[in-house]
Amino acid sequence: MKTKTLADSAIMGTANQGSPRMKTNFVPRVNQLDSIQLDHEITNLLRQQIQNVLQVLPPGLLSHLQPEINFVLNSALWNFSMRTSYATFGQQMLSITYEKDQLSPQKLAFHYFLTTVLPYAKESCQFRLTSWSRVQQLVQLVENGLVLFNLVNFFKFLRSGTRPSLVDCLLRINHRSLDGAKRRNIGYSYMTRELVWAGFMELLGFTIPFVNYHALKRKIRNMLRLETTHRQDERVELNAETRCAYCNERVILPHHMGCRHVFCYLCLKGNQLADAGFQCNVCDYRSETFKKVLVL
Questions:
Q1: Where are the beta strands (DSSP E) in the chain?
Q2: Which range in 153-157, 194-198, 286-290 is most confidently predicted, on average pLDDT?
Q3: How many angstroms separate the Cα of 252 from the Cα of each of 238, 280, 285?
Q4: What confidence tier does 13 reach under pLDDT thresholds 50, 70, 90?
């Protein structure tokens, strides 16, 4: 009986010793998918930065070298991530890495070929061999096949929880966590901010149409006593250089409201319809007059 108890204790001790290792190697599916998305975002961000730098050069100077520029960028990213740390930058941000013993020099070279050289060959063919219809059809056929294989591999990943990308499946390499079996903490503070901002924007969208901007502006100017008095019998000035007092463009169908300033028909009519107490926005003259300017 005592011998059996000791044997059970030894088995439990062995299981307890093995469990931390199993937990350490476990990587949640969401972290693996997020690392792929982060890699795409980092690449797009760097490409955008390069495009901003190239904008200062004469137009078309390096446009024919776009595949080569992307190839150099992808090679640099691969060299400073996979070659040195056995993990992409997206994986490093989430404390994930590949199993080092699974990445032999041959597999590393094959990984570089699949993730960098092949995309360059595809982009170069689509960029330079546009007149070769058979080559374009072959590239499209291969691309459609890869999409199908990626879909099948994604369903396999959802079932097994390992090797989310087709490259990982071909090379038979797995992820492991650098932080052990840490539970992923998800903060919802950003969601609270988004909900508050969305509610505020919805409130503005509902209330702003009910605010008469023209009347509010007029009342504020009157309250600050910024208006000036003008006589109604001032002569209207209209010549080839006259601009609308509201839109500051060439007057179309000139009209006036009793002061010497000229408005376009639509500018004056629209403002008077929107604000019954509309005043001239130049001299603050107020009148319900709506007359066409007659050229004598």
A1: 96-98, 175-177, 255-256, 291-292
A2: 153-157
A3: 12, 17, 21
A4: very low
